[in-house]
Write the structure tokens for this entry.
Amino acid sequence: MTTTLACPEEQDLPYNVFAKACPSRGTLEHVTGRWGGLTLGALYEGSMRFNELRRRVDGVSEKMLSQTLHALERDGLVHREAQPTNPPRVDYELTALGREVAARLLDLIHFVEGRMDDVLASRDRYDDTRGAR
């Protein structure tokens, strides 16, 4: 049985990420955190084994990737499938909900990548005016 918790200060939706006690805030953290967003984006390319995913998400530690995958699986965004082989084979893939979330994240990722020249120029201007170099 699933229990739905409505958040304080309801608007049009039963959940409000801006409300401190809303459970949607945790999911947003899992999705938009450094490793969650990159993991979802990588898995959008297709099913991957743990080490493939670790290589694709450059810089993530084994521990952080494991924690990230557990959180995303718990939120219903990632499916973990363990094959009964010796040694065991574990594959990770996005669920339907995970694919929808990842597609939206990838739109943002591609937008940011496409505007990096503007961002870098802005950083330079900022640093120049504050003597940060």
Remarks:
- The first strand starts at residue 48 and ends at 49.
- Strands lie at 48-49, 78-83, 89-94.
